[in-house]
Write a structure and sequence with these properties.
By secondary structure, the protein is α/β, with parallel strands linked by helices. It is built from 15 helices and five strands. The longest helix has 35 residues.
Length: 383
C-alpha cells in the first residue's frame, strides 16, 4: 500500500514538473535565414528542421545552420522537462541596429502571445547574438536559459585566405558593412585629397581625423539608425504639408548657415581659438534656434490646424533646446572673457565652464522638459 502511494506521488510530481511551457528561440538577428529562405519567422519543429536542412544546403558555410540544429537538439532535450515545447527561428533585419532589435522583439512577442503567459524562453545564438537578444526579450517573457553555438574549425593557410576573401566580399556587397568599410574611408580620402590639392595640408589631416572620429561615434552608439529614422519621419512630415513645413525648414537652414558663416569668418580672420568661441556663442545657439523655429512652424502651427498637436511634447523639446542654446551662448561668452587673461588653454576652458551658467541652464532645461512630461502624463492618467 505504501509503495502504491509513493508511486502515485512520483507520477504526480513528474506531471507537475512537465506542466510548464517552453519556447526555444533561434536568433537570426541579421536575418540571413529570412533572406535565403524567404521567411523571417519559422515556427514548429518540423518546419524548423526542414528550414535547417534547406539553409545548410544553400549556405553550408554559415553558422546559422548550426544554430538551428542546436535549437532542435535543445527542443528535444526540453521535451522531457516540459509539458509543451515550441521552437521558432526568428529573424531581425539585414540593416541590423534598432530595426533588427525591434523586429526581433515584436515577432517573439507575437509568438509568446499565442502560447499564453508563463512561458519559459530559451535563446539559442551563434555566440554573438544571444546576450543582446536576452536583453531585448527581457520584457517579453521569462528568459530561462541561453545557449551559445561556437563552430569549431581547423583552417589551413588556403582556407584562411578564402575566409578573408569571403568577408572582404561581404564588406563590399553588404550595404550595412560597405558604408563603414568603403564609404567612410572613401570620404576621408576624397576630402583629404581635395584639401591637399588646395594647399591645406595640415587642415586635411585634422578634418580627416574629425570624419573618422565622428564615424566611430555614429556607428559605435548606433546613431545611424536614429538619424535614419528621424530623417524618414522628417521627409514624411514635409510630404504632408510642404507649403507650411518648407517655410520652417527654410528658417532653420538660414539660421544654421548664418551660424556656420560667423564661425568660418572668425576662423579666417582671427584663427582657431576665435572660431571655437564663435562656434559656442553663435553657431550652436543659432542652429538650436533654427530647430525651435521649425518645431513652432511645422509641428505646433501645422498640428493646431489639423487638430492633432502634441503640445506637451513640443513644449518639452522647446524648453530643452532653448536652455541648451542659452547654456552654449553663456559658455562662449565666458570663454571669450577668460581668453583675454592670457592663461593656458586648459585653464581657460576650466575657468569658462566654472564662471558660466552652462550647467545651471542645462539642469533647468532638463528639469522643465521632465516636469512638462510628468504633468502631461498625470493629466492623461486622470482622464
Amino acid at each position: 500500500m505504501a509503495s502504491a502511494v509513493s508511486g502515485q506521488r512520483q507520477v504526480g510530481s513528474e506531471l507537475e514538473e512537465k506542466a510548464g511551457r517552453a519556447l526555444v528561440i533561434v536568433v537570426d538577428l541579421d536575418d540571413d535565414v529570412g533572406e535565403t529562405l524567404g521567411e523571417s519567422v519559422i515556427v514548429g519543429y518540423d518546419r524548423v528542421l526542414e528550414a535547417a536542412v534547406r539553409f545548410a544546403i544553400e549556405r553550408p558555410d554559415d553558422a546559422d545552420a548550426n544554430t538551428m540544429f542546436a535549437g532542435l537538439r535543445l527542443y528535444r532535450k526540453l521535451k522531457g522537462e516540459y509539458g509543451y515545447v515550441e521552437i521558432a527561428v526568428v529573424g531581425g533585419s539585414r540593416r541590423l541596429g534598432v530595426e533588427a532589435q525591434r523586429n526581433l522583439r515584436e515577432r517573439v512577442a507575437s509568438i509568446v502571445s499565442e502560447l499564453g503567459p508563463d512561458v519559459d524562453i530559451y535563446i539559442v545564438g551563434d555566440g554573438g547574438e544571444e546576450a543582446l537578444a536576452s536583453h531585448i526579450l527581457r520584457g517579453v517573457g521569462r528568459v530561462a536559459g541561453i545557449e551559445s553555438v561556437i563552430v569549431s574549425q581547423h583552417l589551413g593557410i588556403e582556407s584562411n585566405y578564402m575566409l578573408i576573401a569571403k568577408y572582404l566580399r561581404k564588406a563590399v556587397t553588404d550595404p550595412h558593412y560597405s558604408t563603414l568599410v568603403l564609404g567612410v574611408p572613401g570620404l576621408v580620402i576624397s576630402v583629404a585629397a581635395l584639401l591637399m590639392l588646395a594647399g591645406f595640408f595640415s587642415l586635411a589631416l585634422k578634418i580627416s581625423l574629425l570624419i573618422v572620429g565622428l564615424a566611430m561615434v555614429v556607428y559605435g552608439f548606433k546613431l545611424d539608425d536614429t538619424v535614419r529614422t528621424s530623417l524618414q519621419g522628417f521627409v514624411e512630415e514635409l510630404r504632408e504639408a510642404p507649403h507650411i513645413r518648407l517655410g520652417g525648414l527654410a528658417v532653420m537652414i538660414l539660421l544654421l548657415l548664418l551660424g556656420v558663416s560667423l564661425t568660418y569668418i572668425s576662423y579666417v580672420s582671427e584663427g582657431t581659438t576665435s572660431a571655437i568661441v564663435s562656434l559656442l556663442t553663435y553657431t550652436i545657439p543659432l542652429s538650436m534656434a533654427g530647430v525651435m523655429m521649425y518645431i513652432i512652424i511645422s509641428r505646433i502651427i501645422v498640428g493646431a490646424t489639423e487638430g492633432r498637436v502634441d503640445l506637451s511634447k513640443n513644449i518639452a523639446m522647446l524648453s530643452m533646446l532653448g536652455f541648451t542654446a542659452l547654456a552654449f551662448y553663456d559658455l562662449g561668452a565666458s570663454l571669450r572673457l577668460v581668453l583675454e587673461s592670457g592663461q593656458p588653454v586648459i585653464a581657460n576652458v576650466i575657468d569658462a565652464v566654472a564662471s558660466s551658467r552652462f550647467i545651471q541652464y542645462i539642469i533647468v532645461g532638463t528639469g522643465l522638459a521632465s516636469l512638462t512630461e510628468l504633468i502631461s502624463r498625470a493629466l492623461r492618467e486622470a482622464r
